[in-house]
């Protein structure tokens, strides 16, 4: 993917916190994200690393007790944090859309899937004709088209069905259809396959990959699975305890991981474990995000730690569009 085109999404220094009874949770702490037009960015990391909160922040969907404390979020150059709630609602749905991990709770159980797709189209689709009946007819035709696009047969009839009448895989497809109703430029798919069995997982991922090419959109794929990233993503961003710890073109990161955490992730999955090495899980726990010491966040779990890792560790540019947050790495001066 070229780096010369202006980014579709550019996030800099994002900090999102949750004020809880136990204290302030630094869920996202100084995260930078770039998504270029047409590319697929994989976001990987263990549970609680801040993947969902980062992209809920981008979508303007963080709710109290959470809030964005600082950072800038630009979409096609527009500063999203400066937009009014109605202007942000317009962008959400029309220009960028996010599908949630659990389709059953994300969909409205009281509305048919047709009503839910129509709701999005009526709110955002400026190409619908004037006049109540003509508008409804055109929107219905588009809803059928979207269900067909995500591979749902007898789409016209299925518009009358409620979410619970579909299987888990079908519900994910419906959520994708709703997200795509207005042909957004960016689709953020948060763990689209978590609740699904392996065959259906592959179908949903293929579907997203296929639609991405057909609609020419960018995709952010949030996942625990580096295997999925290696198959579908141009670039990967590895998150740990609210920070990005490594980033770069997928093949380069997977063949030559620079951060000990990325190496740990690779060794903990069967398909991609480095040649000749045994599969082994990363020992220890993600640190408590409330009381974070200034040191490297991976310190307590890192087998390569040095005394100097007790200091604050910044991201280092490594050349070839790669970056990692580890003191052991030589910095490349541009
Ligand atoms: N509503 C909330 N209240 C308090 N803390 C929260 C809330 N939502 C998220 N967090 C904090 O933010 C951290 C990051 O959450 P996030 O959902 O972004 O992780 P994730 O990497 O997407 O994990 P998963 O893969 O399990 O979805 C959590 O560990 C939690 O500490």
UniProtKB/TrEMBL annotation:
Residues 9-266 form the ABC transporter domain. Gene3D superfamilies: P-loop containing nucleotide triphosphate hydrolases. Keywords: ATP-binding, Cell inner membrane, Cell membrane, Membrane, Nucleotide-binding, Translocase, Transport. InterPro entries: AAA+_ATPase, ABC_Ni/Peptide_Import, ABC_transporter-like_ATP-bd, ABC_transporter-like_CS, Oligopep_ABC_C, P-loop_NTPase. Signal peptide: none annotated. It is a peripheral membrane protein. The keyword RNA-binding does not apply. It is found in: Cell inner membrane. The keyword Nucleotide-binding applies. It comes from the Bacteria. This is ABC transporter domain-containing protein.
């Amino acid at each position: 993917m070229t780096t010369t085109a202006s980014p579709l999404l550019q996030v800099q220094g994002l900090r999102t916190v949750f004020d809880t009874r136990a204290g302030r949770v630094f869920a996202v702490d100084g995260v930078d994200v770039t998504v270029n037009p047409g590319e697929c960015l994989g976001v990987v990391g263990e549970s609680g690393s801040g993947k969902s909160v980062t992209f809920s922040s981008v979508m303007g969907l963080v709710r109290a007790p959470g809030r964005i404390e600082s950072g800038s979020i630009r979409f096609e150059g527009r500063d999203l944090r400066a937009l009014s709630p109605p202007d942000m609602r317009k962008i959400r749905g029309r220009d960028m859309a996010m599908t949630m991990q659990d389709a059953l709770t994300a969909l409205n159980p009281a509305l048919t899937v047709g009503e839910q797709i129509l709701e999005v189209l009526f709110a955002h689709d400026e190409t619908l004709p004037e006049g109540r009946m003509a508008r409804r007819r055109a929107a219905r035709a588009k809803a059928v088209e979207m269900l067909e696009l995500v591979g749902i047969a007898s789409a016209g009839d299925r518009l009358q069905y409620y979410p619970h009448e579909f299987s888990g895989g079908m519900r994910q497809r419906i959520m994708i259809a709703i997200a795509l109703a207005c042909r957004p430029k960016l689709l953020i798919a948060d763990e689209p396959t978590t609740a699904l069995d392996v065959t259906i997982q592959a179908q949903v991922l293929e579907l997203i990959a296929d639609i991405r090419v057909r609609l020419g959109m960018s995709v952010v794929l949030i996942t625990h699975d580096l295997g999925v990233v290696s198959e579908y993503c141009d670039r990967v961003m590895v998150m740990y305890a609210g920070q990005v710890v490594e980033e770069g073109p997928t093949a380069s990161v997977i063949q030559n991981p620079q951060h000990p955490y990325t190496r740990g992730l690779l060794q903990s999955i069967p398909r991609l474990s480095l040649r000749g090495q045994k599969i082994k899980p990363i020992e220890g726990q993600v640190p408590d995000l409330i009381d974070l010491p200034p040191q490297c966040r991976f310190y307590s779990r890192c087998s390569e730690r040095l005394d100097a890792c007790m200091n604050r560790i910044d991201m280092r540019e490594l050349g070839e569009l790669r970056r990692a947050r580890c003191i052991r790495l030589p910095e490349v001066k541009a």
